[in-house]
Structures are given as structure tokens and as C-alpha cells.
């Protein structure tokens, strides 16, 4: 009875998917294993808020001043980078710390930031239509995007990599993806790179990487591809189930997205990042968040203070 058989299989897979999702969301390993260490509020640095700061040449800053706080676009499902606690609504991670540092430098107390979750495909539109003042969420700086938005930074250098199940032995790098189902986020640079350079891979796109990871755990796809920093966070949550394989095969410099043409805001953020790298706050923030996924703090990449647009 192939029909009944496939229904049962599908039900089993759905049940498995839900159970695994619950594990990933709860941030614990298998039953009995200790919860994975995550950023704790008490260990996070606090950033001194700039007093009497003004930036009248920046329309974005002026708008935020009238409103009384910044509205910052972020991710909510990327462990150690930008993650929202579903119970408390609190966001944590390295990108969130960068956002808080920038808020403090612009004269707005970090606890007043209004975070908005925006997916990879919607970042440029959100900045263009004024829905957010800036975006801090694993956002690669590149020339194509610079035509649509502005970028301060970079503040971190990631590289594209691959996440597979621990029982996967065939996929060791992008050269092994022919005929394999590979999942990534719509509108992301890793998706575009696979499409352009590894056309034999069978690409699957979702709005978020966490949905890709659910699909990987339930054997709907064979690999998830995006930046190593993001994938290491998922692997750290369920190390018995998932592993990152091979070496990074791109450079993904993370920038802070701002409305294009708001050069005053962009340069102020470049200055604030440079100061945070000098005075140790950048490293403190890294150690308390992304550093927990295993890698010691790297040297931050040089800031690319490109001319006014
Ligand atoms: N850094 C890559 C990008 O900006 C991938 C991560 C993401 O989608 O946020 O497209």
C-alpha cells in the first residue's frame, strides 16, 4: 500500500520535525545533556551613551531624535548573532551588541532601541522606505547593494560555508553539491553564489536560515549554505545532529546598512565602530556573544570609509 505507507512516513517526518524544532528553539541538546551556553545579560558590556551628541546633517538621525529612539532592523533566528527569545522578546547576539554600541554613540540609550526583524530579502526595501533607521544583521557589503543602500564598516569578516547532518559523508565542499538539494535564504549572497558558480546544485530558498535548518534535520534538503558565523551557531545548538564542513569559500564583510545618501550617519557610524575597536568594547561584545560558538576574537577588518554618495 504505497499511499498509506507514504502518509505514515510523512506523519513521522512531521512529528520528527516538530520535536527537533522544539529542541533547537529551546537551545538544548539531547535529553539529559546540559543546555548550550548562550549570552547572558549580566555578562554583556554596557556602553556609555554620548552626551549632547547631535548630527543635524543626517535626516535619519534627526527623525530618530524627534521619535526619541532608533528603529534598527535585525535577524531573530541566528544564534550568537541576532536571536530573539520567544518568551521574553529580548534580542541577543553580536549584531545586537553592535546595534547597541551604535545607538549609544549616537546619543540614544541602547535600552530604548526598537528592534524589527527583517529577512535578508527585505533589507534594502526597509531601508529605502524609512521603515528602519539602520540594519545590523549579517549584512554583506557589496557593490550591487551599495547602489541601493549605504554601508558603515565592515565590523566583521565572515565566509560562506556548508552545514550538513553529522551522518552526511558525501558533501565536503561546494564542489560536491551537484545534484544535491541546497537550502539558503532568498536574496542572500550565498544563494546567489551557488546559483552562479555551482549551477548543478538544486537550490531551495526560504525567507530564513532556521527554516532551512529544519528542512536539513528532516532530510528535505542535503545542505544549508550561508556564512560560517551563522552556521556554527546552528551546529553548536545540536552538535550531535549537525556539522559545518570544509573551508569558507567567499569573503562576507558585515556592514551596518543605512539609507543611501545619508553620508553623515554612515561616517558617524564608521567613527563609532573605529572607537569601539580601539577601546575594547568590540572585543568585549564579541567574547560575550559570537565568541561562545568557539572561535577566539579575530582582528576586525579595516573600515572602508568610502566617499560620500
Ligand atoms: N552575509 C550574507 C548576506 O548578506 C548572508 C547572510 C544573510 O543572508 O544575512 O547575504
TrEMBL record:
It comes from the Bacteria. SUPFAM superfamilies: Periplasmic binding protein-like II (SSF53850). GO terms for biological process: amino acid transport. CDD domains: PBP2_GluB. The keyword Signal applies. GO terms for cellular component: extracellular region; outer membrane-bounded periplasmic space. Keywords: Signal, Transport. It holds the Pfam family SBP_bac_3. Residues 69-293 form the Solute-binding protein family 3/N-terminal domain. Belongs to the bacterial solute-binding protein 3 family. This is ABC transporter substrate-binding protein. The lineage of its organism: Bacteria, Bacillati, Actinomycetota, Actinomycetes, Kitasatosporales.
